[in-house]
Design brief:
The chain is mostly helical and 256 residues long. It has one domain: CDP-alcohol phosphotransferase transmembrane (TM) domain (Four Helix Bundle (Hemerythrin (Met), subunit A)). The chain contains 8 helices and 2 strands; from the N terminus they run H-H-H-H-E-H-H-E-H-H. The protein has a two-stranded antiparallel sheet. Helix 3 packs antiparallel against helix 4.
């Protein structure tokens, strides 16, 4: 008998973490439900389902970190869920609502948005270890989906119709898609410390903000996410202008 038996290799634990993946599956279902609702011309529930997917998508990562259940499987599953909830679902919802009557232009706009969402997610996954966590490169796909979903929500609730609505929806769809694959930087809000103390004034402002949101949710949400979408190009251009002014000032000082 061998006096020094070789230790048997440890068996790899099979299976997946249930809790965070339940949130991911719920977000996936919300996006799927949004598509089904749009196919039945129920556009308001379809838009709300996309916002529900956004909420659930934000929770799955936080739950995984709080419960120490992060995994490679969860990250890949989350990315696939995002592609459905924030790529395919918004494109099909806006297509069913306004783009299908535009013929080839309509489905081309919807495809551009879907393809740029896939490219945005692929780029994000490859830059996880090297990107500055304070900023996103390109408009995040949930924010792009929120712009389209809130736009459809406004149009459906106000029964907006006409060819100008169709062309406006096509331009908005392509515009948000291109922002996702742009090099504009967007603030990620990951440095906000929600567990710390805040002043009483901040608490009052937050309360008033929630009250203001419920006055007319689709309009307020559309304006908020549209402003966020515009903030990327605006801040980037401001930084470039400031950098050029500083560079010009350095050249002027060197000449003196």
């Amino acid at each position: 008998m061998d006096p020094h038996p070789t230790p048997s290799p440890k068996k790899r634990r099979r299976g997946i973490y249930l809790l965070p993946n339940l949130f991911t599956t719920s977000a996936l279902f919300a996006g799927f439900y949004g598509v089904l609702s749009a196919m039945q011309s129920h556009f308001e529930p379809a838009a709300i389902a996309i916002f529900a997917a956004m909420l659930l998508d934000g929770l799955d990562g936080r739950v995984a970190r709080l419960t120490q259940t992060q995994s490679d499987f969860g990250a890949e599953y989350d990315s696939l869920s995002d592609m459905v909830a924030f790529g395919i679902a918004p494109a099909l919802v806006v297509y069913e609502w306004a783009l299908k009557d535009l013929g080839k232009v309509g489905w081309l706009a919807a495809f551009i948005y879907t393809a740029t969402t896939a490219l945005r997610l692929a780029r994000f996954n490859t830059q996880l270890g090297v990107a500055d966590k304070r900023y996103f490169q390109g408009l995040p796909s949930p924010s792009a989906a929120a712009i389209l979903a809130s736009g459809v929500w406004i149009g459906a609730s106000q029964t907006l119709q006409g060819e100008w609505i169709q062309w406006l929806a096509a331009l908005l769809t392509v515009f948000t898609g291109l922002l996702m694959v742009s090099n504009f930087r967007y603030y990620s809000f990951k440095e906000l410390e929600l567990r710390g103390r805040v002043s009483f004034v901040v608490a009052v402002v937050m309360t008033l903000s929630f009250a203001f949101l419920f006055l007319h949710p689709p309009v307020i949400l559309f304006l908020l996410f549209l402003l966020y979408g515009i903030s990327g190009p605006t801040l980037t251009l401001m930084r470039r202008r400031q950098w050029r002014l500083q560079r010009r000032a350095i050249k002027d000082s060197d000449r003196r």
